[in-house]
Amino acid sequence: MREQTALPDVSDADADGGKPDAAVVRDALGVGVAVGLSGFAFGVTSAGSGLTLAQTCALSLLVFTGASQFALVGALAAGGNPLTAAAGAFFLGVRNAFYGLRLSQLLALPRAVRPFAAQWVIDETTAVALAQPTRRSVRIGFTVTGLTLYVLWNLTTLLGALGAEAIGDTDTWGLDAAGPAVFLALLAPMLKDTTERTVAALAVLLGLGLLPVLPAGVPVLVAALAAPLVLWARGRHAGGAGEDMGRGGAEGEDGR
């Protein structure tokens, strides 16, 4: 059976499966405002890592994916090689490409709009969009979340970078932990089955365990191996179980 990817294009809030536009906007604004304010922590952390005001703002304007931004400035602050730091940030951002594959089906945007919408394909916009029952609500949720978050994230990044000197040492305030905390808060509800939890746990063990022995930024790259390792082990286990069942069936037939 072919997987159904199309959503009903419901415009009436009272239609079956629909959702009031106001409710979608409210949810999207809640996510956009809550996460957008953490751009202040990035601005402070980035400036404290030695990046200029222009470099800090350019990261938020052009990269616009918080986990990758925090990973980059964190690795640079720890004395990591810029290429290694950039590579770690890049691999964290690759997940957005997979989000885009799914969102392209749900949003069904005109070709001329897709390059601009791609800038807003991040964890938060994807989460809000996937929670909607109709194409109309998907588009509203994605647009409101993306616009709110993009504006607030860049504004608070600027304010954080400007205020970094007044705040002083970011380690004293613990602002460097704000980015990872937000990322974990978004990730935790998505870990719904054993495989996903195993991947997350192994990634944490690899990242933290290798932190004292590898250069800054490299443990993040190694932690990315958690997913293929777990999937390989799962496939191997499933293959072994299949062989055992086949062997047992053959023995049963021989005994008849």
Would you write up a description of this structure?
The radius of gyration is 22 Å and the shape is flat. The chain has 256 residues and is mostly helical. Mean pLDDT is 81; it is low at 10-16. The protein has helices spanning 21-36, 39-48, 53-63, 66-77, 82-93, 95-107, 114-118, 123-130, 135-167, 170-173, 178-187, 194-210, 218-223, 226-255. α4 (66-77) runs antiparallel to α5 (82-93). The relative contact order is 0.15.
Spans with pLDDT under 50 lasting ≥5 residues?
Answer: 10-16
Distance between the termini: 37 Å
SSE order, one letter for each helix or strand: HHHHHHHHHHHHHH
Net shape: flat
Structural class: mainly alpha
Mean pLDDT: 81
Would you count the extended β strands for me?
Answer: 0
**Cα radius of gyration in angstroms:** 22 Å
Biggest beta sheet attributes: none
**What's the total helix number?**
14
- Relative helix content: over 70%
Beta-strand proportion: under 5%
